[in-house]
Amino acid sequence: MYGAVQADAHADADAVADVDVDVLIVGAGPTGLVLGIDLARRGVRALVVERGATLAPGSRGKGLQPRTLEIYEDLGVLDEILAAGGPYPVGMIWADGVPAGEHAMFDPAKDGEEGSRFIGPWMVPQWRNQEILLARLEELGGSVAFGREVVGVEQDETGVTARFASGRPVRARYAVAADGGRSALRRALGIGMTGETVDPRPMLVADVRIADLGRDHWHVFPPGEGSDFLALCPLAGTDDFQLAARFPQGSRLDLSPEGVRAVVAERTHLAAGDVTGIGWASDFRPRAALADRFREGRVFLAGDAAHVHSPAGGQGLNTGVQDAYNLGWKLGAVLTGRAPKDLLDTYEEERRPVAAHVLGLSTAIHRDETRRGAGTRQLGLHYRRSSLSEETRRAPGPLRAGDRVPDLTVDGVRLFDRLRGPDWTLLTLESGVYLVRPDGHVGWAGATRDGLETYRGRVGLGRDGS
Fold it and tell me: Which of 124, 123, 118, 156 is nearest to 16 (CA)?
């Protein structure tokens, strides 16, 4: 149970003098980059390593949910993200080469309905999202080492040693596997994943350019005689579309430009020559899987390394961002000696149940068992059952310990402006007193300040909340 004495943190801080970095982050996708940003702004020495020679190409996870946009505002990248993307278009169903009617792809919230300025997902191709995050990381003094493939990892009581396919090893106090669903680091640790095939039918996903197709709709071509569905979604901020096409079980997909053009010609009113450009293409097999544990000693799993989703509903990337946002402040507090090491135990305690819940939601959406609505916006996810959440009121109001603080304006002051930054915040509102964690969730709630100092001592905070 969390609550060890703070002296442990200082002992750990003094024990390691032979490390290259405080935290080694394996994988430069959105999860790894967000974690790198969060640690950099806390003054923690972190290194992000990436197996590839560059950032991963392709639109991939293109949907940023409202909660992710709130996190991006805190991390200082929201303006760039909003400028780079746009809202999702309405779906257009095609039949026999002509439009047959519109279809809403998401159930948007009303303005302010969930205490957020954002009412639906914002589309930014993943390659562009990563570019923005990398620029912010570098602005804060962080970096990514490309061409660094992890082939093994060893750890002891004081740190982690990562071995690479080429070059000398790196020694860190902690490491984070953010290297995707086929995580080499997770496999090196011997951590299994439990899951299922969401759909045995393979998917072709590609970025294509089609000059003569309208960009005001997400074009959906339902299954026809002898063929399965195909969809073309205009990628906001670009001239491209993301193509998604499903094939019968057992099919071998042709990812060549000729193969991509052929499937467009076979399933739509477009000709193969109308596809004037083809970028990234992938053979995707929808599945859902959850790592058996999110931690092995000094190594943590985050993002797709910890949970793999169907793309339906746009949950995978966003859940990974929240993993990083949860873990970053905890690593920072322990590494700077401001909190006991036991704080790190709450990462799996809080994030694994959330990941399991979101996996179920993604699978249900993929199988058309539920719609993309309030659950997919991720604003209502909470940590009420966490050992870090202490609710002392006999009759709690709508905002309880463990909840995300809503984006409200009180007495002319926007709460998110008060919460911005890497520290805890004490709020006194009409319905109570709240000590808010660095990730925007309420840690302690009471009718008065009675018991607040005891909680601060338990989590390793000084009297000023810092």
Answer: 156
Residue 130's contacts (CB-CB under 8 Å, 6 or more residues apart) are 28, 29, 30, 33, 55, 56
Q: Which residue has the tokens 């750890």?
A: 155
Return the residue matching tokens 């060890």: 4
> In sequence order, which ranges of 301-450 are alpha helices (DSSP H)?
316-335, 345-366, 415-419
73's tokens: 């505002």
State pLDDT tens for residues 90-129.
999 999 999 999 988 777 777 767 799 998 899 999 999 9
Residue 412's beta-bridge partner residues?
A: none
12, 302, 43, 408: CA torsion to nearest 10: -120
Beta bridge partners of 155: 160
- Give the strand pairing for 170-177 and 160-164: antiparallel
Give CA separation, 265 vs 42, 99, 113, 205, 262, in Å.
52, 17, 43, 16, 5
- Exposed e or buried b per residue across 412-425, where buried means at least 16 C-beta atoms within 10 angstroms of its C-beta: eeebbeebeebbbb
CA neighbor of 35 nearest in space, from 176, 196, 147, 168: 176
Contact 361, 311 (CB under 8 A): no
- Helix or strand holding residue 73 (H, E): helix 66-75
Residue (of 246, 241, 249, 201) closest to 227 by Cα position? 246
What's the token pair of residue 335?
Answer: 């590494």
The backbone torsions φ and ψ at residue 92, rounded to the nearest 5 degrees and listed phi first, read: -120, 120
Token output for 427: 């709020």
User: Strand pairing of 230-234 and 241-246?
Assistant: antiparallel
> Phi and psi at residue 141, in whole multiples of 5°?
95, 0
With a threshold of 0.90, does the pTM exceed it?
Answer: yes
Looking at 267-346, which runs of residues are DSSP E strands? 275-284, 287-291, 295-296, 299-301, 307-308
Residue 380 CB: number of other CB atoms within 10 A?
A: 12
DSSP output for 361-393: HHHHHHTTSS-SSGGGGTSS---TTSTT-EE--
> Tokens at residue 156, please?
């002891």
- Residue 186: alpha-carbon gap to chain centroid: 18
The three-state secondary structure class of 84 is helix
Rounded to the nearest 10 degrees, what angle do helices 316-335 and 345-366 cross at? 180
What was the pLDDT predicted at 10?
37
Q: Which domains does the chain have, with CATH numbers?
A: 7-85+124-196+288-377 (3.50.50.60), 203-285 (3.30.70.2450), 390-458 (no CATH)
> Token digits for 284?
């995707």
Per-residue pLDDT of 328-339, as tens digits, reads 999 999 999 989
The one-character DSSP state at 49 is E
